[in-house]
Amino acid sequence: MIIKTEQDEIQNYLIDASNTKGFCEAVYIPENVSEMGQIIKEANEKKHSVTISGNGTGLTGARVPKGGIVISTEKLNKIIEINLEEKFALVEPGVLLSELQDAVNSKGLLYPPDPTERNCFVGGTVATNASGARTFKYGPTRNYVEELEIILPDGDFLYLKRGENFADDLSLTLKTSSGKDINLLLPDYEMPKVKNASGYFCNRNMDAIDLFIGSEGTLGVITKIKLKLLLLPHNELSCILFFETENNALNFLIRARDESYKNRKLKIVNSIDATALEYFDENSLRFLLNDYPNIPVNAKAAVWFEEQCNDNEDELLELLINLFLDYNGKDEDAW
After folding, report:
1. Is the pLDDT of residue 78 over 90?
2. Do residues 325 and 250 make contact, with C-beta atoms less than 8 angstroms apart?
3. Helix/strand/coil for 235
4. Is the pTM for the entire model greater than 0.85?
5. pLDDT of 116-139, one tens digit each?
């Protein structure tokens, strides 16, 4: 166990990428799960407030302490297993997302969640249900979490496996490793049907594991994570398309979105199935002009398009360009 109390040693643990600043009495860095359980239990007995610290890449101040102690997961940083046959990874929370992605990619597998900052800890992405541009196709982190090992505030352990423990309407029972039952009454509210990472995830008859994904360390400390992996596509088709009117860009975007949803649902191969779609308005393009002076002078909007593919890149490119031309696009305005 590493313990830091000197102010010059703990400054990096008092901020995140938002530059929100906090304060604490000490920073604890457990070097194994046993030490993590010990400090959590002691803090609970002494009524110390605890802030769990990832790698500080967040933009919401979630890891910034307001007193008490900080517990960093940085030393719990092992990739325990990458299983090629069953396509899963077993990791500790302090593993860098970039390290995990590179490791699984080298084995022909894909871990889809892609938040903007790849230097985040995997545990942090689970605690925040992180998402990124590829969420349009693959969904958020939640979709890939199969199992969690969690230390509860009293130091007891909780093991959750997706598909094994469900709420009965709004009543949920959790059984800890010591055999204790924790009976919960879940709040009754409807989750938004759009991309959302705020508040606790709660639904009637929900899987217990989903309560902890996105809970930002407020319900317990995640110490082990089993993640579902996919096969890695061979290639990626990426392009940016410039439009002379905003309406054409928006109508193209809507069409590309709807085509992707339909083709994905019907499992139509060699079709538009975007991994990511991003819209740029005129102000965004003007902002980029100094670095990219070749942006078409008449462009009022643009759409960034990505689709993962195997050996069908030429066919997909033809489909995409034809769709672009349907909305008055020009060949020279497709990069």
Report:
1. yes
2. no
3. strand
4. yes
5. 889 999 999 999 999 998 999 999
Burial bucket for residue 300 (CB in 10 Å: 0-12, 13-18, 19+): middle
For residues 227-256, one letter each, b for 16 or more C-beta atoms within 10 angstroms of the residue's C-beta and e for the rest, the string is: bbbeeeeeeebeebbbbbeeebbbebbeeb
Q: Give me the mean pLDDT over the 249-254 stretch.
A: 97
Mean local confidence (pLDDT), 93-99: 98
Mention every residue, 6+ apart, whose C-beta is less than 8 A from residue 82. Answer: 88, 89, 90, 103, 104, 107, 109, 229
Contact 151, 40 (CB under 8 A): yes
Partnered with residue 109 across adjacent β-strands are 231
Domains and CATH numbers, the chain: 2-72 (3.30.43.10), 79-231 (3.30.465.10), 235-333 (3.30.70.2190)
Element (H, E) at 319: helix 313-326
